[in-house]
């Protein structure tokens, strides 16, 4: 690659200023990942859409040249994104087999049947917000008491994970996606997450129930197509992390956006847009994932006018693509829930595109729209309790969120 190298900050931070600088140079950027590993990020919307569905782009880490040559340091914080076995690291027939097996358990009917339970959990958590609010100003951390326990509770019930394990799984998954973690802690967190899920799967095998883990185990035990042990655990890792971290960030980012743009909240209340529009615009304007690892060209590939050598680890720059003016217009930096759809009907790529489009997207839509509608119906004057620039960002350039969201429930 001949473009200037951009060193991604392992501590994360707000991605939009850096995205704008890189996009000004072109839709593809050469980047330096933690440990000095060189890679690329595809940032432009149309270029990313093409790249995500390109037949010469793979997900299997056997195509990762630096990894194959031993140039990736031990304890690399992004190792899980390459090493985990499952849908996110499989290609072709292998990917179709794994996705088919998971889809049998993750059916549209089963997801839709969760809608009443999502509403029930939302109402219960809203009651909890009232109780957790401190002092006369009614201030509470919305992330901790609402945005986190809702998707974690849903994914926990879906997979049969008891409430006593959910905090541990969230803590471990947060460390697995962190990019500023030490090598020693990265190794320990990955090991503990695998051990925890292995023990959980063994308990489910001994005492199955009406949950997705039991269904995956049944698929694993059938003759013919089957999940190996590594694929089973890798699938659980994927579902636990993606099943709550992304939705958590999406709820938090939507609340932040609406608090900063009261006219857009008023538009929804007046019926000029709906909560689905809020979710779609948040996905575009402040994507819950900034840079998702990894894809690898299987041959030297020219993308957006830039040559990416075969075997390069490539990040999908979702947050950059969402504000790409070439795709979304001169006002791409503006949060607008009434924004008209592009002619190709693709407003955002933040849930993926092509064969690896997010399997959990329908569940995320139920959770986010239910959460937002319930939250602002119960607390119509809800607002941030601290200025936006005082919020502490997540310690990762993968996830795009904040560590806490103090809000004032009433004016």
UniProtKB/TrEMBL annotation:
CDD domains given in the database record:
CYP107-like (cd11029)
Respond yes or no to whether keyword Protein biosynthesis is given for this record: no
Q: What is the residue range of the signal peptide feature?
A: none
Query: Per its UniProt record, what Pfam families does this chain match?
Result: p450
Q: Which Gene3D superfamilies match?
A: Cytochrome P450
Q: Which GO terms describe its molecular function?
A: metal ion binding; monooxygenase activity
The entry's family comment says: Belongs to the cytochrome P450 family.
Q: Mind telling me what this protein is named?
A: Cytochrome P450
Which keywords label this protein?
Heme, Iron, Metal-binding, Monooxygenase, Oxidoreductase
């Amino acid at each position: 690659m001949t473009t200037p190298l951009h060193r991604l900050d392992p501590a994360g931070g707000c991605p939009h200023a850096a995205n704008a600088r890189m996009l000004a140079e072109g839709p593809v950027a050469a980047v330096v990942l933690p440990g000095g590993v060189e890679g690329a990020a595809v940032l432009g919307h149309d270029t990313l859409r093409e790249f995500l569905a390109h037949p010469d782009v793979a997900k299997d880490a056997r195509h990762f040249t630096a990894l194959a040559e031993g140039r990736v340091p031990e304890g690399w914080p992004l190792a899980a994104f390459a090493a985990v076995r499952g849908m996110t690291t499989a290609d072709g027939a292998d990917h179709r087999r794994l996705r088919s097996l998971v889809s049998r358990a993750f059916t549209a009917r089963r997801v839709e049947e969760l809608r009443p339970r999502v509403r029930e959990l939302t109402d219960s958590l809203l009651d909890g917000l009232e109780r957790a609010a401190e002092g006369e100003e009614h201030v509470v951390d919305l992330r901790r008491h609402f945005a986190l326990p809702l998707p974690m509770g849903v994914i926990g019930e879906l997979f049969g994970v008891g409430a006593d394990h959910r905090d541990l799984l969230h803590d471990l998954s947060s460390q697995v996606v962190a990019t500023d973690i030490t090598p020693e802690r990265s190794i320990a967190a990955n090991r503990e997450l695998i051990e925890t899920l292995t023990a959980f799967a063994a308990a489910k095998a001994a005492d199955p129930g009406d949950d997705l883990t039991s269904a995956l185990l049944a698929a694993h035990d059938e003759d013919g197509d089957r999940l190996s042990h590594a694929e089973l655990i890798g699938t659980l890792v994927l579902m636990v992390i993606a099943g709550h971290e992304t939705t958590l960030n999406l709820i938090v980012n939507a609340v932040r956006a609406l608090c900063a743009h009261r006219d857009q909240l008023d538009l929804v209340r007046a019926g000029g847009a709906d909560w689905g529009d809020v979710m779609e615009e948040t996905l575009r304007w402040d994507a819950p994932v900034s840079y998702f690892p990894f894809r690898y060209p299987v041959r030297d590939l020219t993308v957006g006018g830039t040559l990416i050598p075969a075997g390069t680890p490539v990040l999908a720059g979702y947050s950059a693509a969402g504000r790409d003016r070439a795709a979304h217009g001169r006002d791409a930096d503006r949060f607008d829930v009434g924004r008209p759809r592009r002619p190709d009907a693709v407003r955002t790529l933040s849930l993926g595109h092509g064969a690896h489009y997010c399997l959990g997207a329908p569940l995320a839509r139920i959770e986010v729209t239910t959460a937002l509608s319930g939250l602002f119906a119960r607390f119509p004057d809800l607002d941030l309790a601290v200025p936006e620039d005082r919020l502490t960002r997540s310690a990762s350039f993968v996830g795009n969120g904040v560590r806490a969201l103090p809000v004032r429930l009433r004016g």
